[in-house]
Amino acid sequence: MLLHPCGQSFKSRVMILLCGTYVWVGQKALVQAGIAKTEGNKLYAAGNYEEALQSYARALESAPDHPSSSETRAQCYSNRAICQIQLV
Q1: ∠ CA(77), CA(81), CA(84), 5° rounding?
Q2: Measured between alpha carbons, how far is residue 37 from residues 12, 16, 45, 55, 66 in Å?
Q3: What does the DSSP 8-state code read for residue 84?
Q4: pTM for the structure as a whole
Q5: What is the DSSP string of 23-82?
Q6: Residues 6 or more apart from 13 whose CB is under 8 A from it?
Q7: Residue 46: count of CB within 10 angstroms of its CB
Q8: What is the arithmetic mean of pLDDT over 46-51?
Q9: pLDDT tens across 62-75, in order?
């Protein structure tokens, strides 16, 4: 039986891989936030700072205010600040 690092059986729950981390499918909002953050990162790398800001804002709207999403939320706030600096 395969086990996730948290000890959960892969057979007992459906999991998906997002950015190198397994998450429970039930965490749809957190997955959506991760997708929006990744989109923002790509836009930032391409120099589209205003569009990246919008993606990070979507990620923050999607990410629940819960300890499981605190890292994603912190990264989005930080990335938004960097975009604001680039726009000055």
Answers
A1: 140
A2: 29, 17, 12, 6, 17
A3: H
A4: 0.69
A5: EETT-HHHHHHHHHHHHHHHHHHTT-HHHHHHHHHHHHHHS-SSGGGHHHHHHHHHHHHH
A6: 24, 25
A7: 10
A8: 97
A9: 887 777 788 999 99
